[in-house]
Specification:
This protein is of the alpha/beta class. It folds into 3 domains: 2-112 and 266-330, FAD/NAD(P)-binding domain; 117-262, 3-Layer(bba) Sandwich (FAD/NAD(P)-binding domain), CATH 3.50.50; 344-427, no CATH class. The chain has 9 helices and 24 strands. The chain has helices at 12-28, 62-65, 138-150, 170-184, 206-218, 267-270, 312-330, 383-400, 422-427, and strands spanning 2-8, 34-41, 45-47, 66-68, 78-81, 84-88, 93-96, 101-103, 106-109, 113-115, 132-133, 154-160, 191-196, 222-224, 229-233, 243-246, 251-253, 256-260, 263-265, 297-299, 343-350, 353-359, 368-370, 376-378. The protein has a 5-stranded parallel beta sheet with strand order 5-2-1-9-20, covered by helices on one side. Strands 11-18-12-13-14 form a 5-stranded parallel beta sheet. A hairpin with a 5-residue loop joins strand 23 (368-370) and strand 24. The protein is globular, with a radius of gyration of 22 Å.
């Protein structure tokens, strides 16, 4: 009997899930258990999203990080290029805009997060891609490259409108790279850089937040906390200057603004009865990755509502547990509840160095080394971490997306190598 698994989204989560499932059922298939895997996406362009950070600084180009989705999927996996209209969880069917309906036995939602530019007054309006930019999509990152190249000085503001966002450390990385970039151009003393965030610190986790705030101060980057952007004035039509206006009335003037818009889940989620929350993210069990909507629906990556970073590493670690649980579900076995919220992030700090943080639901980023006591340094700038970030792009295309295991890096957060306080040690 053939079971159909439909995967919505051909990005990181959808691709690695489909390839892992194919690998499993190709090796372990028995006569009465056959699986058909279908991946749906609206286009055939797979973007390695961490590279978008480097585009504005002229450090990479499109041909290095955009590839066809079909080339990342095993040939036995069907790829459907179409827009999703909605999911009918009552009929176990996906309805596409082109008219095709895909019945499924298991549905995987991997459509990530989208930029809700229109949710903030003035964002996307006058001055958009002229004085106000985002590097969170390819068009914006490319336009910003030209703007930075011609920028000769003034106030640069990097602003996060609201959380959650994809890759929460990326706006900080942009600040650090801007510091390096303008130093290299010899005009750093002419540029005032401000990082404005709705958080009460530089990051969500206290130890990492303190370390990153210290690094911002060291590099002469102003940190403005608890700034909730309500309006963006992208041109000086009223004579009061270009500025961000907070809901509390505070105003932040800029000559060039780099804004990370509010994020939502995919639009079709909102059109699918009972599937998502008010932001179109899908309620998900944080340990099994099974949706809370229906037992044959699983969710991975940025599409979930789980309380961990919306980062590529999270998708990687979730993938191991998610694929195991799809197999268990089809075999009528209890689900694996082991996903611990593991996330790690390289944080580019400029001048050929980077930080690395590693954490999960219960453990915040700590100093030490990853993945063992002799690995890469944690919460410390190093050349080693910078090289690790650059190397990961090769790993992404050749190991992560094909669904292969990465030696020494598993789904569970490693405990060895981390420097804990006595109280923390006692709790482990």
């Amino acid at each position: 009997m053939t079971k159909r698994i439909v995967v919505l989204g051909g990005g990181t989560g959808g691709t690695l899930t489909a390839n892992r499932l194919h690998r499993h059922y190709k090796v372990h298939r028995v006569d009465d258990q056959r699986v058909e895997i279908v991946v749906v996406d609206q286009d055939n362009h797979h973007v390695y999203q961490p590279a978008l950070l480097f585009v504005p600084f002229g450090l990479t180009s499109r041909q290095e990080f955009v590839r066809p989705r079909t080339e990342q999927l095993h040939p036995d996996i069907e790829f459907v290029e179409d827009t999703i209209n909605h999911v009918d969880t009552f009929r176990d069917t996906v309805v596409l805009d082109g008219g095709r309906e895909l019945a499924y036995d298991v549905l995987v939602i991997a459509t990530g997060a989208t930029l809700a530019v229109d949710e903030t007054e003035g964002l996307g309006g006058a001055g958009w891609n002229e004085n106000v930019f985002t590097f969170y999509d390819l068009a914006g990152a490319t336009a910003l490259e030209s703007a930075l190249d011609s920028f000769e000085g003034g106030k640069l503001v990097v602003n996060v409108v609201d959380m959650p966002i994809k890759c929460p450390v990326a706006p900080l990385e942009f600040c650090f790279l801007a510091d390096w970039y303008f130093t290299e151009r010899g005009i750093r003393d002419k540029v005032e850089i401000t990082y404005a965030t709705p958080l009460d610190g530089a990051f969500t986790k206290p130890i990492a937040s303190a370390a990153l705030a210290s690094l911002l101060e060291e590099k002469g980057i102003k940190l403005l906390t608890e700034f909730n952007t309500g309006t963006v004035v992208g041109t000086d039509t009223d004579g009061d200057g270009k500025r961000l206006i907070g809901y509390d009335g505070r105003e932040l003037e800029f000559d060039l603004a780099v804004v990370v818009p509010l994020h939502n889940g995919a639009a079709y989620v909102g059109r699918s009865e009972g599937l998502g929350d008010e932001l179109n993210f899908v309620p998900t069990d944080p340990h099994t990755l099974q949706s809370k909507v229906k037992e044959n629906v699983f969710v991975i990556g940025d599409a979930t509502d789980v309380l961990t970073s919306k980062a590529g590493s999270v998708t990687h670690f979730e993938g191991e547990v998610l694929v195991s649980n799809i197999e268990r579900f089809l075999d009528h076995e209890p689900l694996d509840t082991s996903y611990d919220g593991h996330a790690n992030c390289f944080i580019e700090t400029g001048f050929g160095k980077a930080l690395l943080i590693d954490f999960n639901y219960d453990t915040e980023p700590l100093p030490g080394h990853f993945p063992t006591a002799v690995g890469m340094p944690l919460l410390k700038e190093s050349r080693f971490n910078h090289l690790g970030k650059l190397l990961f792009q090769w790993v992404y295309w050749h190991a992560l997306l094909p669904g292969r295991d990465i030696p020494g890096v598993g789904a569970d957060m490693p405990r060895h190598g981390k420097q804990r306080s006595n109280n923390e040690e006692a709790m482990v």
